[in-house]
Design a protein that fits this description.
This protein is α/β, with parallel strands linked by helices. It folds into two domains: about 270 residues, Aldehyde Dehydrogenase, Chain A, domain 1 (3-Layer(aba) Sandwich), CATH 3.40.605.10; about 180 residues, Aldehyde Dehydrogenase, Chain A, domain 2 (3-Layer(aba) Sandwich), CATH 3.40.309. Helices cover about 40% and strands about 20% of the residues. It is built from 15 helices and 18 strands. Helix 3 runs antiparallel to helix 6. The longest helix has 21 residues. It is globular, with a radius of gyration of 23 Å.
Length: about 475
């Protein structure tokens, strides 16, 4: 592995594909190594151990659990460069972005280390003088998670942090495309003193098989999933058999709206960070752009000029802003959406170059209409379709015309419009004059078919706790 100074981060790797899963660098095609695979029986045994360990973990004072999480946070920050390089190698995002994700992921460990001490109950005024009423919060038990490849560290820590802080044990299956980061960040948790049975990382040759184990095992009481709406729906159906609690962070189709009173330069800057971070492979990235007809040409011209300054290449190379997409099928899907939009009348503002390998040249499409296929689908790539609108009512109707409701963005300097539009948008998160909204201190999640539950903030730990009501009689 290239220039990983803390070799203990790679201690989990196995020597051959017979014993594990080959992990490939999407920028070069190089096989980086082999991640260990757990047999079905090994996963079942691990869940049994997790259930036993959870009881001891939950009995530990919240302050003590928080202290271990704080140590984990410190080790992640200390190993930011190695973790970032490892992530770039297996996922492709530019090194600066990868290191930024490490810091972002670590912030959830730190936040929930502090929240562990704040899982307050409450006292309730009783309806009669002979009773005393109160509530307490208790961990749900064994929690599991299935996480995606696009944020291979942050999507784990955003779930593991609150689960461990609440007193749950935690079993996670990362993506087969990016498992190295998951095992590495877990190794740092073990170095911090978190027991191995309390935090487990598992892989299987068949992802559906692991999902089936998670949703059917009676000892698992909570499932958290980040991924597609289609898979999330299947997991929810499977989890309904024994009424598991679920959290679902699913697909998105984020509108990015520019009103005629917007600061256009600020809107372009926000569009760049929202759309092209991680080569457009984020669930909250802007997916379709609605720009008022009065400022449409100005925005498109400035936006495309900024896009032409992006540098596509290997994320380890100096100055690269846009890495590869994750797979050949992803690249083909993106290009198919572009070709379909052009057939329907859209035009690239600048010529899109066809690049070798898994690289996709970022492109802005103009003359897009709301009824085109590219507008209704999650692109998950560096493509920005721009649509014109004329009034607020038309805009709201188009922006909400989707099954998804995760993130949305708009730019306006009219305070009356700001509140009106923010309240009218049917999304779990709204960025107002801001293109980068994710933070550990605010609740992350969507509405409609973008999922249920919230991650981060004070709400995040409640997803892993049950509220128990206590009624004291005979007073």
């Amino acid at each position: 592995m290239q220039q990983i100074t803390n070799q203990s981060l790679l201690s989990f790797m196995v020597p051959s594909e017979d014993q594990g899963i080959a992990v490939t660098n999407p920028a070069t095609g190089e096989v980086l190594g082999f991640a260990p695979v757990s047999s079905e029986q090994a996963i079942l045994d691990g869940i049994e151990r997790s259930s036993v360990a959870q009881k001891e973990w939950a009995a530990m004072p919240a302050k003590a659990r928080g202290a271990l999480l704080q140590r984990w946070y410190q080790l992640v920050i200390e190993n930011k460069q190695d973790l970032g390089r490892l992530m770039t190698l297996e996922q492709g995002k530019p090194l600066a972005e990868a290191e930024g994700e490490v810091v972002y992921g670590a912030s959830f460990i730190e936040w929930f280390a502090e929240e562990a001490k704040r899982t307050y109950g409450e006292t309730i005024p009783a309806p009669s003088g002979d009773k005393r009423l109160m509530t307490i919060k208790q961990p749900v038990g064994v929690a599991c998670a299935i996480t995606p490849w696009n944020f291979p560290i942050a999507m784990i820590t955003r779930k593991a942090g609150p689960a461990l802080a609440a007193g749950c044990s935690f079993v996670v299956k990362p993506s087969e495309s990016t498992p190295l980061s998951a095992f590495a960040v877990a190794e740092l948790a073990y170095q911090a003193g978190i027991p191995r049975d309390v935090l487990q990382v598992v892989l299987g040759k068949d992802a559906r098989q692991v999902g089936g184990i998670f949703t059917s095992h009676p000892l698992i009481r909570k499932l958290s999933f980040t991924g597609s709406t289609q898979v999330g729906s299947i997991l929810m159906q499977q989890s309904a058999h024994d009424i598991k609690r679920t959290s679902m962070e699913l697909g998105g189709n984020a509108p990015f709206i520019v009103f005629d009173d917007a600061d256009i330069d600020a809107a372009v800057a926000g569009a760049m960070v929202s759309k092209f971070r991680n080569a457009g492979q984020t669930c909250v990235c802007a997916n379709r752009f609605y720009v008022h007809s009065k400022v449409y040409d100005e925005f498109v011209t400035k936006f495309d000029a900024a896009v032409q300054n992006l540098k596509v290449g290997n994320g380890l190379e100096q100055g690269v802003t846009t890495g590869p997409v994750i797979s050949e099928s992803a690249k083909q899907g993106i290009q198919s959406l572009i070709d379909g939009a052009i057939e329907q009348g859209a035009q690239p503002v600048s010529e899109q170059k066809q690049l070798d390998g898994l690289f996709v040249q970022p492109v802005v499409l103009k003359n897009v209409t709301h009824d085109m296929n590219i507008v209704s689908q999650e692109i998950f790539g560096p493509v920005a379709p721009v649509i014109s609108f004329d009034n607020d009512e038309q805009l709201i109707e188009m922006a909400n015309d989707t099954i998804y409701g995760l993130a949305s963005y708009f730019y306006s300097q009219n305070v009356h419009r700001v509140f009106k539009i923010a309240e009218a948008l049917q999304y779990g998160m709204v960025g107002i004059n801001e293109g980068l909204i994710s933070t550990e201190v605010a609740p992350f999640g969507g509405v409609k078919q973008s999922g249920i539950g919230r991650e981060g903030a004070k709400q995040g730990i409640d997803e892993y706790m049950d509220v128990k009501y206590l009624c004291f009689g005979g007073n």
